[in-house]
Write a structure and sequence with these properties.
heterodimer, A: 92 residues, mainly alpha, 2 helices, 0% strand, elongated, B: 897 residues, Helix Hairpins, 4 domains, 5-stranded mixed β-sheet, 35 helices, 9 strands, rod-shaped
């Protein structure tokens, strides 16, 4: 994510927001991986206090929904920002 | 139940015919250029669903029935890859676009310096890795069919002959793939019809699975709450997952998602627009989630409802069937059938592309003498190679199905396949992120990883003792304990799949990295490496791949520059007419582009034409190879044009010489005419007076003696003048023709001058005063003395005649110069005007209005004489008077000494 030396130090608020959204987009799979690897920590099988299957299903699919929701939301946000940027570029 | 089976076969055939029609319509639309609706984000996302094969459709439920939630890892990996599209997919798609990558083998080979060895290795690995997968599809479909055909008998033999059913399914799939995948050849290896067909199939399988799930949850269990309670109460009620498998399978499925040839085909090769990837990044996880949502409920209900020992891989079909829901069961079968067909079609297409491009074509081109002469030639060979490869790959799948006995659990076979293709991952990711990755590293990593996979995963899958002897598993090959297929380095207790994945990928990556660090890449490899790793610096914002009419305009402008306006317009109009369009701009469909490229290549060379057209149409950046080819061509053209230039210079020089010669001839002709005119005039004047006076003498009477004498003497004088004129003319003509013979003699210059003076003074009126400077006059020389004297006499006579000064005077001096001897005659008369000076040495030229008896041949004769003697005579303008300089070559003088 290194930027060239010619990049400005301070960005306009909108561009700044946009860049942070891109960062979030990049980090999303890391979040997903961490959340989906949590079940590895759960007690399994014959161990004491096993996790119920229904809870496991709710958890795994819940994470799925959250990731999809975040991903779609970030996509929409970036899409809108892109449109705004290209419109701004079109206006003299 | 046979009636149901027949119904099922009928429905399947109708379904296939329907898919065929959809694909055909899509192809037609694409040819007509109305492909906008074919390439939408939705279609792209749905086409990715070929990841969900019959394995996931049928097998996931069986997997869940056996191992609980573990099945979901197969979907978690791809979901993570899609959500993290920014990291890998974005780059892969851009590289695929800019390098015109046609397959995963092409990608890896292109990255490592277009190495065909690497391409062949990857192709073989892909074929071997995917073969179990194709067998898996045949197995799922035939198993599902067997459910309808009736209950299995005591020996487990279904009422259906599994092998022949498998054969017919394989044959049907092969036919469909050949019909669709090789209908036409597209430079981009894209198949609009197939993509649409698999999108439709994606919808069918999703709808089928959700329908079964809804039926199970709300129809049988009675809602979400009771369903969850039933799940918790069942054997699957608690979380039972092997931790290492959970992590390893998530990683493995993510790797396979990127590396499977069929996934690469739909993700990268068939991608139309990079923005579609962004949408698919959340839309495809939705699809995957929906596909896996009802797996556990179906498994639990199936385990609960169906008799013990039923194959859980078939619960999706057998649960509705057991509930008397034949329609739902048929729909479910169609869902599985769709999964199998779409997977087999795309997988064999992708593999056949690899086989024909990287194995068959190189062999064909090297075997065939003279290489490819016509493009149509190669086209047919490629198509035939594709078809043969498709048949071969499906035949291999069928063979594996027959050999493995169709017995293994679906999930196990699928994971073997995943582990095989995952071996591409280090070379692929290393290639696009690390410039230091080299061909040697990639090749050794791939080979080692593949070898470990074959040894630890593929061969054991046939059963212990089937291919590998059982002793291998107990004590290791030849007693080497640390090489046991399930316990490398003596580490026991690992799950076999995790074991194979872990060791193969670890050693693959290590060897790849070490090999890359130790080897040195070739220049092309380094260039390609830079292009791949820094692809975002080199390629611009992506455009749609399908050229629009706007692209036609660009092409027109370019073609006009190269072909010329009229020809380009004619070409485009003809193409538009052929396409049945009224305007001047045709649709830039592949046929037209190919034709245009051919036309252009006649002018600019094949490579350049290809680079230009693809730059305009495909938004593909020009690859290094293209550039090298273009440079080659330019060098050849440069050489050719410099040859042409040399020839044209020569021609223009010759033309110049001809023009000069022509000018000279014209001038000579004019001179000759003028000369004839002069001569007749000069001859006529004396002739007229001679005739007149002789007529007077003859006819007039009573002339006095004095008068007679006077007239006779006039006639005499004129006759002498005529004679002299004719003498001069003769003299001149002889000299001009070079026929004069020089009588070389040795004498002194002074003597010649003396003689000339004596001769002239005898005839002159004596008014001219001659002054002589005797400086260098006493020089001996060897030349024609008489002719030289003639020149001197002429000059002195001229001075006598034409010097109109009060006291006419002629100075004669001799100057010795390094190479010449100059005799100067300087008078004090009226200077010859500039305009006349150029003419005085011409025949019949006399300076202005001076009257005289000469014919104007004197100086012309002088000039000729001097030219013969190797010297020169010239007139030098003076402030007052005239200076004639006679130059003699010094050699003439020296030779005499």
């Amino acid at each position: 994510m290194a930027r060239g030396p010619s990049s400005p130090v301070f960005l306009e608020r909108r561009s700044y927001r946009r860049r942070r959204m891109q960062d979030a987009q990049r980090l999303l799979p890391v979040l997903g991986l961490v959340l989906w690897m949590v079940p590895v920590l759960w007690p399994s099988g014959d161990e004491a206090a096993p996790v119920r299957m229904s809870d496991a299903i709710y958890y795994v699919f819940g994470v799925w929904c959250v990731l999809i929701g975040l991903s779609a939301w970030l996509w929409r946000g970036l899409q809108r920002g892109e449109d705004a940027l290209s419109e701004a570029a079109r206006d003299p | 139940m046979t009636a149901t089976l027949n119904l099922l076969v009928g429905v399947s055939l109708i379904y296939v015919a329907f898919l065929f029609a959809v694909a055909f319509a899509a192809e037609r639309a694409a040819v007509r250029g109305r492909s906008g609706w074919l390439r939408t984000p939705l279609v792209y996302t749905l086409s990715l669903s070929i990841y969900c094969t019959a394995w996931t459709f049928y097998g996931a439920v069986g997997y869940a029935a056996r191992s609980g939630m573990e099945y979901v890892t197969i979907y978690l990996g791809p979901s993570l890859v899609m959500i993290g599209w920014w990291w890998v997919l974005r780059k892969l798609v851009r590289i695929g676009r800019s390098q015109r990558v046609t397959s995963v083998a092409d990608l890896i080979s292109a990255r490592y310096g277009k190495s065909n060895t690497l391409a062949i290795v990857v192709t073989i690995m892909a074929v071997v890795g995917v073969t179990p997968y194709i067998a898996l599809q045949l197995q799922s479909v035939t198993l599902a069919l067997s459910i309808f055909s009736g209950p299995a008998d005591v020996d487990g033999n279904a009422g259906l002959n599994m092998q022949s059913a498998g054969f017919w399914v394989a044959a049907g799939l092969a036919l469909f793939t050949v019909l669709f995948g090789t209908r036409n050849l597209n430079a981009n290896e894209r198949h609009d019809g197939v993509v649409i067909a698999i999108a439709v199939e994606a919808v069918v399988k999703l709808v089928a699975l959700i329908a079964v799930g809804v039926f199970v949850v709300w129809g049988i269990a009675g809602g979400i709450g009771p369903m969850m309670a039933q799940i918790d109460a069942s054997d699957l009620g608690t979380w039972q997952v092997d931790r290492s498998r959970w992590a390893a399978l998530t990683v493995l499925s993510a790797a396979a998602f990127l590396c499977l040839p069929r996934m690469f085909q739909v993700l990268v090769v068939e991608n139309d627009d990079e923005r579609h990837v962004q949408i698919a990044s959340w839309a495809f996880p939705v699809y995957l989630m929906l596909m896996s949502l009802f797996v556990v409920p179906i498994a639990v209900v199936g385990l609960d409802l169906l008799p013990a020992g039923s194959n859980p891989d078939l619960f999706v079909v057998s649960v509705p069937l057991a509930q008397g829901q034949t329609g739902l069961a048929v729909l479910s079968f169609l869902g599985g059938f769709s999964s199998a067909t779409s997977m087999v079609i795309v997988a064999t297409l992708a593999l056949s592309t690899m086989v024909s491009n990287h194995v068959v074509m190189p062999i064909y081109l090297s075997v065939k003498p003279g290489g490819a002469s016509k493009s149509g030639d190669v086209r047919n060979v490629i198509l035939r190679a594709r078809r043969l490869s498709i048949l071969l790959i499906i035949a291999l799948g069928y063979l594996y199905y027959v050999l493995s006995g169709g017995s293994g659990a679906l999930a196990a076979i699928g994971l073997i396949s995943f582990a095989g293709v995952a071996q591409f991952l280090p070379a692929m990711l290393g290639g696009i992120f690390w410039r230091g990755a080299t061909r040697v590293g990639a090749l050794s990593g791939l080979c080692l990883g593949f070898a470990i996979w074959v040894y630890a995963s593929l061969l054991p899958s046939f059963g212990q003792g089937a291919v590998l002897p059982a002793s291998f598993f107990e004590v290791g090959p030849w007693g080497i304990g640390w090489l046991r297929p399930y316990a490398f380095f003596g580490i026991e207790g690992m799950d076999p799949t995790v074991h194979a994945v872990f060791w193969s990928l670890l050693l693959n990556t290590s060897v790849f990295v070490v090999g890359s660090l130790l080897s040195f890449p070739k220049p092309l490899e380094r260039l390609q490496g830079a292009q791949f790793v820094n692809v975002f610096d080199h390629s611009g914002q992506a455009r749609g791949w399908h050229a629009s009419v706007a692209a036609s305009e660009d092409l027109m402008i370019m073609a006009q520059r190269i072909l010329g306006a009229a020809e380009a317009q004619a070409l485009f109009r003809a193409a538009a007419l052929e396409q049945g369009m009224t305007g001047h701009l045709p649709e830039p469909n592949p046929a037209f582009l190919e034709r245009l490229e051919r036309e252009l290549s006649a002018s600019v060379g094949t490579a350049t034409a290809h680079a230009m057209v693809s730059q305009m149409v495909g938004a593909a950046s020009v690859s290094v190879e293209d550039l090298l080819a273009v440079a080659d061509e330019s060098a050849q053209m440069l050489e050719y044009s410099s040859q042409l230039e040399a020839k044209s210079t020569e021609l223009s020089r010759t033309a110049g010489q001809l023009r000069e010669a022509n000018d000279k001839l014209t001038q000579l002709s004019v001179q000759k005419d003028a000369f004839l005119g002069q001569i007749s005039h000069e001859l006529r004047t004396p002739m007229t007076s001679i005739r007149a006076f002789s007529e007077i003498l003859r006819d007039a009477e009573g002339l006095s003696v004095a008068e007679k004498t006077k007239y006779a003497s006039i006639i005499h004088v004129e006759a002498i003048r005529l004679t002299r004129l004719l003498d001069d003319l003769l003299d001149l003509s002889v000299m001009e023709n070079g026929q004069v013979s020089l009588n070389s003699a040795t004498g002194r210059l002074e003597a010649v001058l003396d003689h000339a003076l004596i001769t002239t003074q005898a005839s002159g009126d004596g008014r001219l005063r001659i002054v002589r400077h005797k400086t260098a006059a006493d020089t001996a020389l060897t030349t024609d003395m008489d002719r030289l004297g003639q020149v001197f006499i002429n000059l002195i006579t001229n001075a006598q005649k034409y010097c109109r000064a009060e006291a006419p005077q002629l100075e004669i001096s001799v100057r010795a110069e390094p190479h010449t001897l100059a005799v100067e005659f300087r008078d004090n008369g009226t200077p010859i005007p500039d305009a006349a000076r150029a003419l005085i040495f011409e025949k019949f030229a006399r300076a202005a209005e001076v009257e005289g008896s000469g014919a104007g041949l004197g100086l012309a004769i002088c000039r000729e004489i001097m030219a013969r003697l190797g010297g020169d005579i010239s007139h030098v303008p003076q402030a007052s008077g005239n200076l004639f300089v006679v130059k003699l070559p010094r050699e003439a003088a020296l030779a005499a000494q």
